Amino acid sequence: MINIDVNAVPKLFNMCVKDDCPLAEKCLRHEVGVAVMENGANWIRILNLRALNKNMDGECEFFKPTEKEIHGKGLLKFLESLPIAESRKAQSAIEAAVSSGRQFYRYRNGEKTIDPQLQDLMRAKLKKAGIENDLFFDEMVDIYSF
User: Fold this and answer.
1) pTM, full prediction
2) How far apart are CA 54 and CA 27, in angstroms?
3) In whole angstroms, what is the distance from residue 12 CA to residue 31 CA?
4) DSSP 27
5) Domain segments of the chain: what residues?
6) C-beta of residue 112 within 8 angstroms of C-beta of residue 98
7) What is the tens place of the pLDDT at every residue in 64-104?
């Protein structure tokens, strides 16, 4: 079983309670479900058991591996390292990658972590905007990707 902070689990994360699934020990959805129930939760959000019963052959469309990912956290140091004109262009490019100014500020300030896929999208948007500096983050964290 993995060691997980149940308070870090998003409220809308779907969990799995199929103990007899052949993928259970390697699945983040199952391991989080076990951890949350052991923590005394009265309510959890689970996947449809009828849909899960179809997946007993060792394949599951809902499977999520228990491996951690390296997420970036905070963009302040990167933006401060750029000249002012480039910093403004970089901010616009990153806003386009995250879909809104409000989300941009949450990522910039480190309130939300930046998963590897979003890091790649940010780098592509920065390159398209003509920013040559390589993107870096205030901090890197190794976390489960819900």
Assistant:
1) 0.75
2) 16
3) 16
4) B
5) 6-53, 68-144
6) no
7) 999 999 999 999 999 999 999 999 999 999 999 998 889 99
